[in-house]
Amino acid sequence: MTTEQANIIFLHGNNGGKGDGGKASDYWFPYAKQEFENLGLQVTALDFPDPRIARMNIWLPFLKDACGANEYSILIGHSSGAIAAMRYAEKNKILGSVLVGAYYTDTGDAIERMSGYFDEEWDWSAIRKNQRWIIQFASVDDPFFSIEEPRLVSEKLQTQYCEYTERGHFFDETFPELVEAVRRKLA
Hints:
The protein has helices at residues 29-38, 56-65, 80-91, 110-115, 124-129, 148-157, 176-186, and strands spanning 7-11, 42-44, 73-78, 96-100, 133-139, 160-164. The chain starts with 6 loop residues before the first strand and ends with a helix. The chain is globular, with a radius of gyration of 15 Å. The protein has one domain: Rossmann fold (3-Layer(aba) Sandwich), CATH 3.40.50. It has a six-stranded parallel β-sheet with strand order 2-1-3-4-5-6, with helices on both faces. It is α/β, with parallel strands linked by helices. It is built from seven helices and six strands, in the order βαβαβαβααβαβα. Helix 2 packs across helix 3 (80-91). It is 35% helix and 17% strand.
């Protein structure tokens, strides 16, 4: 595989993007998109439809059809975008994924329950086998769920796990660690 074949696809979280089919511009996405393009990588950063609830039955087809996800794709998901990336990898081969602020339960939230991502058990083995690598970023002070959620995801998926103490839910404007981690995987 060559760098030219790799396609990075950003998946924003609930309430992310503008929901108008435009370019995703959440937090560190513009920074990372520019950095990846500077490395000569193809990047897709669209706003996903249904941004408030992020329903699985809308997002996964959009990921495949509108974003062009395939076996050369690197899915970079933030929050519920990370959940969508994991569910997509259960049934589809991809190159790799980066999970930022990932969890595995509906966290007791009604909107999360409505998304459909948590209606079935996770097929951890399939998620792991359908990609070459998984990088994960988590923070102990995430305000939306306990650190046990991403730690379990890491254990089940055997991710390259990066845990911080003061990054919250990763709402920063830059994310050099993410760019460097992906760059290393592609080197």
